[in-house]
C-alpha cells in the first residue's frame, strides 16, 4: 500500500481510477508488457502514415488448399511450411508427400502458455495439432514438422473423427467425429443408429485425455443435426431451428465413469489395451444416461445463434424464411427484446447481410451489409436501468459516389427511357463489402471492399479506427478479384495475405509486406 501511494505521489496522480487507466495505457515502465504495447503503438502509427505502402512481395499457386496460421503458410496438406515473417517468404520445411491414408483433415495452432512449467522443452515452442483421415491426432513441431506426440483416437467402434475446435482457446480442445450414418442397406434392414456424434476432450500442453462421450438420439432427441462445444457450453442444434445449451463441465463431472490417462494400460468393457495406442484408441468413458439440465434454448432460422455483450444478450433470426436478414437482439436473462433490438438493413442482394458480436470484447455488435457497416452498442435506457437499448456507435459506408442508378434516363435526342429492373445492393459494379475483420494487437477494424467491371474486379483493404470508425489507411490489392471465387484475407500486423480459391481446386496466395516509400521505389 505504501509503495502504491509512493507511485501515486511520484507521478502526480491522486485518483485511483486515473492511475488504473494510466497503467492500462502503459505509462509505467516497470509494468509487464509496456515495451510491447509501445512497440505496437509505434507500428500502428508507422503503418497508417501516408508514405507507408504495402508491396506484393510473393505470389504462389497450388493444386491443394493453402492455410495461414500466425506468420506461417501451409501448403500440400501441411507438408510444406513457409514463413511469411521474413522480408520475402521463405521455406521452413518441406516433408515428403504423404499417402492418402495420412491425409490431414483439420489442424489447430498450439502456442505455449505464459508463466507455466511444462514437462518437455518442445512444449515451450509453437506446435501444430493435426487430425488425420485414419483417426490419428498428431502434435507437430511448427519449426520442423517433426512428430512430437501421437494419439490414436478410434477404438473398436467405427468413429470417423474429422473436426478440431477449441472449448477454451489454447487450453481445452474438442475432437468431433463426422455424423454417424448407416448405409442404405442397413437402414432398409431396420437397423437403428442411435449414436450421432462422438466428442473426445483433451487438455493441451501437456496433452492429456479428459474423456470421450456420445451424442445419442435417446438422450437428445431424433432431430439433432449438429453439436459444438464452446466456453464450457455444449450446443446442440436441431433440424427445426432449435438450439439448446447445456453445461458441458457439469456433464463431464456427472457422467464420467472412470478417468484414464494417455499411455495407461486399461481393461474396459472386456477390452485390454493402452489408452491412445493403436488399435485400442480411446475409451468412451463418459456415458450420458439422462438428459442433462437445460441451460437455455432458442429457435432461430438455420440455427443461427450468438451470445455476447454486457449484460449478456443473444442474437437470433426468427425461425421463418420470410425473416431471413432480420436479427433480434434479446436479453439472455429474461428473453426481453432490447429497445431498437430488431436490426433489418432491408437489403435486396444475392448474398445476405451478417451480424456478430465484436471480437474486441467491448460488447459491441457489428452488422455488415453490402454497402454499410454498422457498429452498434448496448446501453441502458434512460430512466430504466433494467432495460437495454441498441444504439449506433458509428457506421462505415461504401464509396458509391460515382454510382448512378436512375430508373428513368433521357437520351441526347430527348427520348425518355425507363429501366425495367433496378440494381441489387450487392451488384458487382458497385463497391460492396466482402470481408470485415479485427486486428487485436493494433486495435484496427479492417474491411475489404470490391468493385467488378466486366471480368476485372478490384479490391482494396481499408484500416479503420476501432473506436470511432475513422478511415486511417487504404491498400489497393494488385491482383484481380473475382466475386464468384472464394476469398480469405488475413491482416497480421505488418502483413497482408490474400488466399483465393478458383474453380477445379486451384488456389493462389498473395503476400503483401509493409515497406517505406522511397524515391527509388514506386510501389
UniProtKB/TrEMBL annotation:
Keywords: Membrane, Transmembrane, Transmembrane helix. One of its GO terms (cellular component) is Cul4-RING E3 ubiquitin ligase complex. It comes from the Eukaryota. GO terms for biological process: protein ubiquitination. Coiled coil: none annotated. The chain crosses the membrane at residues 195-215, 227-246. The keyword Cell membrane does not apply. It holds the Pfam family DCAF17. This is DCA17 factor. It comes from Sylvia borin (Garden warbler).
Amino acid at each position: 500500500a505504501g509503495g502504491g501511494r509512493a507511485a501515486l505521489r511520484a507521478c502526480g496522480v491522486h485518483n485511483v481510477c486515473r492511475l488504473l487507466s494510466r497503467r492500462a495505457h502503459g505509462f509505467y515502465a516497470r509494468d509487464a508488457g509496456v515495451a510491447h504495447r509501445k512497440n505496437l503503438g509505434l507500428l500502428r502509427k508507422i503503418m497508417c502514415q501516408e508514405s507507408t505502402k504495402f508491396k506484393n512481395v510473393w505470389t504462389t499457386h497450388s493444386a491443394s488448399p493453402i492455410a495461414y496460421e500466425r506468420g506461417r503458410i501451409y501448403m500440400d496438406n501441411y507438408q510444406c511450411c513457409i514463413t511469411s515473417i521474413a522480408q520475402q517468404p521463405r521455406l521452413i520445411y518441406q516433408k515428403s508427400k504423404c499417402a492418402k491414408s495420412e491425409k490431414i483433415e483439420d489442424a489447430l495452432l498450439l502456442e505455449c502458455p505464459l508463466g507455466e512449467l511444462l514437462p518437455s522443452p518442445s512444449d515451450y515452442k509453437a506446435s501444430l495439432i493435426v487430425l488425420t483421415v485414419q483417426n490419428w491426432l498428431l502434435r507437430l513441431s511448427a519449426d520442423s514438422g517433426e512428430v512430437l506426440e501421437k494419439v490414436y483416437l478410434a477404438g473398436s467402434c467405427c468413429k470417423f473423427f474429422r473436426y478440431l475446435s477449441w472449448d477454451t482457446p489454447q487450453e481445452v480442445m474438442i475432437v468431433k467425429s463426422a455424423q454417424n450414418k448407416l448405409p442404405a442397406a442397413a437402414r432398409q434392414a431396420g437397423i437403428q443408429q442411435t449414436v450421432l456424434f462422438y466428442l473426445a476432450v483433451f487438455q493441451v500442453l501437456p496433452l492429456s485425455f479428459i474423456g470421450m462421450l456420445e451424442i445419442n438420439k435417446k438422450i437428445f432427441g431424433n432431430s439433432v443435426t449438429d453439436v459444438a462445444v464452446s466456453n464450457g457450453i455444449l450446443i446442440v442444434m436441431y433440424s427445426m431451428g432449435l438450439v439448446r445449451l447445456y453445461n458441458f463441465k457439469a456433464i463431464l463431472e456427472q457422467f464420467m465413469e472412470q478417468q484414464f490417462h494417455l499411455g495407461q494400460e486399461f481393461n474396459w468393457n472386456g477390452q485390454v489395451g493402452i489408452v491412445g495406442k493403436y488399435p485400442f484408441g480411446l475409451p468412451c468413458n463418459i456415458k450420458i444416461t439422462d438428459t442433462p439440465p437445460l441451460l437455455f434454448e432458442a429457435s432461430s432460422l438455420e440455427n443461427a445463434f450468438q451470445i455476447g455483450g454486457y449484460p449478456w444478450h443473444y442474437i437470433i433470426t426468427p425461425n421463418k424464411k420470410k425473416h431471413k436478414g432480420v436479427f433480434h437482439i434479446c436479453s439472455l436473462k429474461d428473453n426481453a427484446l432490447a429497445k431498437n433490438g430488431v436490426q433489418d438493413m432491408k437489403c435486396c442482394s444475392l448474398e445476405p447481410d451478417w451480424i456478430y458480436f465484436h471480437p474486441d470484447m467491448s460488447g459491441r455488435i457489428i452488422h455488415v451489409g453490402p454497402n454499410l457497416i454498422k457498429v452498434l452498442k448496448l446501453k441502458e435506457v434512460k430512466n430504466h436501468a433494467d432495460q437495454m437499448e441498441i444504439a449506433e456507435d458509428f457506421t462505415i459506408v461504401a464509396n458509391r459516389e460515382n454510382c448512378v442508378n436512375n430508373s428513368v434516363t433521357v437520351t441526347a435526342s430527348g427520348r425518355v427511357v425507363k429501366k425495367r429492373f433496378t440494381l441489387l445492393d450487392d451488384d458487382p459494379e458497385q463497391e460492396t463489402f466482402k470481408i470485415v475483420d479485427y486486428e487485436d494487437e493494433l486495435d484496427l477494424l479492417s474491411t475489404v471492399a470490391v468493385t467488378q467491371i466486366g471480368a476485372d474486379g478490384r479490391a482494396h483493404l481499408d484500416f479503420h479506427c476501432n473506436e470511432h470508425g475513422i478511415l486511417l489507411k487504404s491498400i489497393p490489392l494488385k491482383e484481380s478479384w473475382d466475386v464468384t471465387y472464394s476469398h480469405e484475407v488475413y491482416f497480421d500486423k505488418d502483413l497482408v495475405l490474400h488466399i483465393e480459391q478458383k474453380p477445379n481446386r486451384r488456389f493462389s496466395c498473395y503476400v503483401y509486406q509493409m515497406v517505406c516509400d522511397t524515391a527509388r521505389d514506386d510501389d
